[in-house]
Each structure stands twice: as C-alpha cells, then as structure tokens.
Amino acid sequence: MFQIARDVFIEARRNHFFWLSLGISILFLFVTASFTSTDEAMRGKLFLESGISILWLVHILLAVFFTTETLYDDLERKSIYYYLVREVSRLEYLFGKFGGIVLSVGASLLITGIVFTVCATFLNGFQPRCLVGLGFIFLELTLAIAVLVLFSTIFTKLISIFAFFFLFFFVSLLEHYLLGADVGSLVKGFLLLIPNFKYYGYLNMIVHAKEFSLKYMGFLSAYTLVFSMSSLLLATLQFERKAL
Amino acid sequence: MTLIRPHMGWFFALSLSLAIAGQCVLLRERQDSGIATLQEDVISSLRSEFKFGLSSYLWKKLDFYMHNSEWEEKESGDQIAYYSSLVNTKEFRPLIEWSIAIDPSFTEAIAILSNTIAVSFGEVDEARDILRSAIIHHPSQKRIYRLYGDYGLIEYQLEKNYSRAIRFFHRCFETLSRLNPREWTTDDRFNLRNFGLSAAISAFKIGDVQIAYEFHRLSGFEQGPEEFQKEMDHILALRGELKLKEHHPLRRFPGKSSHDHDDHEAGELSREKEGALESEVLKKIVQNRSNLDSRLHLIPQLNPRFFYPVSWELTAILFGAFILQMGGVSLWRMNR
Description:
Number of strands of chain A: 0
Radius of gyration of chain A: 19 Å
Oligomer: heterodimer
Strand content of chain A: under 5%
Number of strands of chain B: 2
Number of domains of chain A: 1
Number of helices of chain A: 10
Distance between the termini of chain B: 35 Å
Shape of chain B: extended
Helix content of chain B: 55-70%
Number of helices of chain B: 13
Structural class of chain A: mainly alpha
Strand order of the largest sheet of chain B: 1-2
C-alpha cells in the first residue's frame, strides 16, 4: 500500500499539470502580494482572502484532474495489473492510490502554503489563521479526492468529473433550499449522509472569523475522516465487483 | 500527462455553447431591463456586462466586509447593541475605489464613497472632487440627482454654505426628471426626502421661507426642527395642501429595496415604523453578539447555513464512526 502511494508521488513529480499548478499558484500569490502591498488596508483580510482563494481553486482543480488521470491511466495502460498480480488486494490498491494522491496534492499545498504564509507574514506579520486556512483546504482536498476515487470506480472519467462538481455545488444548494422548508428527519438524515463541502467555507470561518473554534476544527477533522473513509470503503466494495 | 484528448472535443464544444447561451440569456435579460440597449454592439455589451458584474461583485464584497468589521458598542436599555459601519471597515476605500474604477458610472458607490469620506473622514475637498468628476465625466447617468444631492449635503451639513447648498439641491430635483417615479426605489425615496428636507432647512436658514416650503413639499413634507416645522405647517394650512401631504408620492412605501442590504431597509419607513424596526434590528444584533461571545464570529450552532448544529457530541459520534470503519477495514484485511 505504501509502495503504491510512493509510486503515485513519484509519478506526480513527472506530471506537467502538477508543476504547472504549482507555478500558477506561486505566480498568482506573488502578484497578489505585490498588488496588496501597495495599500495598508489591503494587506490584512483582502490578501488573506485572495491568497486562500488562489490556493483553494488551484488545488481543487489539481485534485480533480490528478485523481482522475492517475486512476484512469492505470486502467488504460493496464499498469493496475502490475500491482494486482503481486498479492495486493483491491482495497490496498485503492487506499494506496488515495494516500499517494493526498500526499502529492498535500506536498503542492505545503510548498505553496509556505510561500503564502511568508507573503502574509511579510505584509501583515505572522497570522496563525493562515495555517488554519491551509488546514481547511487540506481537509477539503482529502474528502474531494476520496469522493473522486469512489466516482472513478463507478463512472467514466468525464462523468466522474461532472458528478463531482455536481455534488460539490448541488448538496449545499439543495440544503439551502430545504432550510426554510419543513422537512422531515428522513430528508435531513439523507442530506447528512452525503458529503457536503460547505463546512470547509474558509471565508466565514477563517478570513472573517473573530476567534477560532477548537470545536469546529475537531468536527471538521472527524467529518473529513468519516466521509473519506466511507467513500473509500464504498469505492472498494464497487471495485471488488468490477471485472478487470 | 495527456489532459486534452480528441474525444474530449465534444466536452469543450458543449462548455463553449453553454457559455455563449448563458451570455445570450444574460444579455437578453439586461436588454429587457433597459440596462443594455440594442444599439450597442455585442462586444461593447459584453464589456459593459463584465465591468458591471465585476464592479457589483466588489460592491457586494464591501457589504460583506463591513458586516464583518470591528463592531461598535451602543447601549440600548439594559442591553448592549453592536453595529458595524463603513468607517470601521479597513477595506472600505480600496474595495469601493476599485469598484468605481472598474465601472465609473456606478452612481450609488460614488455617492457612498464621497459621503463617507466627507462626513466620517473629514476629507471634504476630496469628496467634492469625486462628485464633480463623476458629474462631468458621466453626465448621462440616470440617477445623477444623487450626486448633486450629495454635493448639496456636503455644503449644507459640513460647510454650512446654505445658498450654495440650495443651488445643488435645485439641480438635484431638476435632474430627477430623468427618473420615472415608477422606477423610484427605496433608496431613491429615502434620498429624495433627505435632500428635500436639507434643501428646505437651508432655504429657511437664509430666510427664504417660500423656497423652503417648495423644497419641504418636494421632500414629501418631511418633519424638520420645531421652528421650521411650525412655519411650514402654517404655510401648508394657508395654501390648503393637506390632501397633497397625505397623498404625496414620496409618502407611499413600496416593499422592496433597490439592493438587498437588510440593515438599510429602515431608510424608507415612517418614523414610527423606523423605531419598531430599529428595535427588531437591535434585538437581532444583541442576539448575534451573545452568540459571538460563545465561540466564533459566525456560529455554526445558529448559523442558518448549517443544517446540523456543530457540537462536541456530533464530533464524538463521527470519531466513533471512524474508529468503527477502521476496525472494519482491519477485520476485512485479516480475513483475506
């Protein structure tokens, strides 16, 4: 399992999209930092919001495309058999792939996160909320990758991408509409079982938050762990049934 | 990595078609609303759409930043209410200046910028320059009355130059003819009453009671200081215009504000209604603050964006579920 994760990480280093996203993030961070440094009023929340948004956007796209590329390329190039014939179970294969992708995207986030934190410190002094913001993005990426792994075992590549973005936006929207309505506990329970990405909203919880909530961070970590694990287990069940 | 492949062509074609279709729908909507006209070519329409969208986005951002800025405390009975204001919003100037730079015909933003920097920051000359520049460079604005009115307010409130203020208020009501009364929004009504009253008091201060009454009438017979009001009521009785007072268009209150600023809705209501609404708003603010004190600025427990309250209990249940999942995985691996 760890070997698979390591292979994915090595593969990521050869991936053009990976380096491109890294370059774009750093470039945009520098541009934003230079721009916001011109005005004292822009150095605080505005830089924080812009910086976290850049990192979030680039890494969520990286996670989507890198996950689908990695998983579908293995099937297309038949390299999946390289692992499966070596007494690696399908569960270990999927968990290994998941670990490798999380590690690769996490490494990219770490590098760009360091650049972001240095810029933020240079502009407005060290702010712990930068690190919490990176934590939010990392947790969201972890869940996103797990959901994409699940979809990749069910759908084709394009449908997986569409399904992910549909889930990403639709669940929050559906919930938003149901909030005012008098819905039963069955509907509420159903909504609770679907991964919901609104909990990772960094604008309210990081940029404009007056204080940090340990309770919220605990909840978010537990939420990510449970839903990621559930997605991976469902993915394994589906993958076990799949004829290769 | 081969991200783009020939078979993905249909995907890009579909995305492009959807984008064009969406833009067409938007343009059609804007044309129907009279914001974009058919005389404009597509490129300039798209450009103005983009500018309008980006400028509005920054404007909305400003609203969000304001409501999340440092709060001011104010005692209200036995409770303390907390208000947010533009003055305490550090990001006010860059956001609004960028919003105006992108769309220089954004009348409302210009008026708020000039008014805030004049009244709150005391930069009267700069406020005047902003208004003058907006009037000169964009004379065809539909709501240009607002800029003249705000100029008049600066002269009336800050400079105490009443005769100069009256000139601007006069121009303000002249240019109001560009706007059909049916298009008056809540903000328009509030501003017109404010400008009318300020003009009337200015005229009263320089001793021109008849002009003061005319502006008083234009303001929808808005209540002023005692001495002024006594004189106005006297003229009203002499002219027999009580019915006009009751049915004045500015005294009718439509339901909706031109923009979705909940906190600004009090602007269009009568004073009694304003009082009632203020106490409601205060209650809300006090409640928000008590929530804020508990842990976080936007509290997951009570934030309507959260369907389920975030609590330690829920966190413990989720962690328990995760441990069970891990146990299940371990058992599965052992069995294999």
